[in-house]
Every structure is written in C-alpha cells, then in structure tokens.
Amino acid sequence: MTKSDPVSFLPLPQAQFHVLVALSGGEMHGYAIMQAVEESSDGIVRMGPATLYGTLKRLVDFGLAEELDGGLSPEDDQRRRYYRLTGLGEQVCTAESVRLSRLVRRTRSNLRPRLA
Amino acid sequence: MSDHCRIYESMLWLYPRDFRREYRSDLVQNFNDLLVDHGIRSAWARTSIDLIVTVPRYRLEDIMSEQKSAVTINIAIAVLVAGAMLAMATGFYPLTPVLLIAAIVLAFVQRGALARAIRTPDNNRRRNRLVTAAVLAVICIIAWFSFLNAVGDDEISTASLLIHNAIGVPAMIGAVVYLIVGLLTPRVPRTTQNA
Known about the structure:
The complex is a heterodimer of chains A (116) and B (195). With 116 residues, chain A is mainly α. Chain A is 55% helix and 10% strand. Chain B is an all-alpha fold and 195 residues long. Chain B is elongated, with a radius of gyration of 23 Å.
C-alpha cells in the first residue's frame, strides 16, 4: 500500500530522511549513499550495511525511491544497484525539510538570548 | 573474496530469508567497500553494531508480518491447549482453565488472519501445509508408540510422561490444524496457472 499525501509520511525517521537527502543529489548506489550520509552529518550518522538496505527497502516499498539496474550513465558501475528519488520522494523530502526548518526557527527564537 | 567478506556473508544467515535473498550481494559488496576504505577494525566495528541492532529488528518485523504471525499464533494455540491438557493430567487443575481461556482468546485473534490465509489460492502453501501436517502426524505417532511402549514395560516415570505429552500432544494438535488449513487452502485454477 502506498500513500500519496507527502504530509502523511511526516515526521520521517532519521535514517530515512538522511537517505532521501543523499538521493536528492542524484542517483546513487548503496555505498555512495552511506558515504553521503556520513559526510552530510559531519560523521555523526554512520550507517551499517543492513541499516542502509533496510531503509532503502522501506523507501522503495513506500514509493519514495526507486531502483535502477546498473545506473543510468556509462560511468556508473553496472554491477551495482542504483537508487533515485521518485516524485513523491522529492515532495516528502521537501515537506520534511520545511517541517525541520520551522522547528529550527522556533528553537532559535526561543533560545535567542542564550545563543547571542 | 577476502576471508572477512566470507565471514560477513555467513553471518547474513541471521537475517530473514527474504531480506537476505534480496540484498545479500549488495550487503557483501558494501562491507567489502568498507574494508577497503576504512580498514578491517573500523569496518567490523561498524558492521558488528549494525548486526546487533538490525538482526532482532528485522527478525521481529518478519515474524509480525501477516503470514508469519498467523503461523506463530497457530503454534501458540497448540502449545496452550497442550499445556492445559498436561496441567489436567498432572493435577495442576487451576492452570487448565487459564490456559484454555488464553487459547480461545488467541483463536479469536487468529480467525481474521487464518481466514485471509485460507482465502488466498496458493498451490505451494497448500502443499507446504499438508507436508507439515504429515510430518507432525509422524512425530505424534512416534511419540505415542514410544509412550505406549514405556507404559507396557511398566517403566514410565513422571519425566518420561511429561516429555511424551509435551511432544505428542502439540504434534497431534498441530497436525490437525495444518491438515484442516491445508485442505481449506484453495488450489490455483489451471487456467490461471497457464496464463
């Protein structure tokens, strides 16, 4: 069963959001996603192989990402399975980003005296 | 393939079959990439934590899936009924109604899942259920023959009685349940098979 309303997926689990953010940069294979997640989180989020593929399976089941066999361009490693965002995946990623940015704004305004 | 990859690949048996079948080569490839880029110690540190966290989680998710949960509840009902009979046979009378009520509650919970499982035509499932029923029936017959033999020889102890009942009774109930479910599972019509 796939839902079509992006808001119904929110809030996204952390691992799923990190993978969606990585895939928002374009199609990637599993290990590249793992590296991208580590880089974008300044090394704080380090996924193991099974966490990564469990998360990817869920995203594919939900219709937020899709598999590509062997990548699209000739430079892609044809032995690996590549993934990319679907239209719904992009919408969900955007919606989660907006939700989190609102949260960050609220946090900043509440803690402004201490942050200053 | 390095020895480390082989060890990791053998550990993938801990995961549910469907997950393993779908992602085995990707997981091994990914682990190999970790070995090359981060070294043996770092790769194993990350992967060990990953195994500890994900194996129970994926196993639990697998058990809680519709088909598996139906089987789990079937087994639980059989064990509870066997426990109730055992309690009655060994004189723990207060325990009998408690176990029977629990079995009845589970049977009601099961009805929805069982009905869904029976409604779906599937030749493989039908065959698997009937084979399971046959295997359980054989176990039950062996247990009862062994029990009768022990009774005939006047050498039966309480422990022996408990073991015979703990194996024979659940096997008998399981055989009946699987036989009924197997016979009720519809075959796929020939025209659909050929299509």
